[in-house]
Design goal:
about 10% helix; 1 helix; two-stranded antiparallel ribbon; mainly beta
């Protein structure tokens, strides 16, 4: 799991993350025509943008290392 930190304001908990995801899923339609999506498999995923929810910047948001994330939890 990726954790983020905003070096501008110190935020560790609130981020707007934009992700592009390519999936394969089973679409099951009921007799009444209602759709249920099952067995979703993520084929690829990329993080397009991360912005701090507190100060609005994306430039100062960095990924935390595993050691940093462990010591701040």
């Amino acid at each position: 799991m990726i954790r983020y930190r905003c070096t501008a304001c110190g935020n560790l908990t609130r981020f707007d993350v934009t992700v592009s995801r390519r999936t394969r899923s089973f679409h099951h339609y009921t007799v009444g025509g209602e759709l249920e999506i099952e067995d979703v498999e993520v084929l690829s995923e990329t993080v397009d943008d991360v912005r701090c929810r507190w100060c609005g910047t994306g430039v100062n948001v960095v990924e935390m290392t595993d050691d940093e994330a462990t010591t701040t939890s």
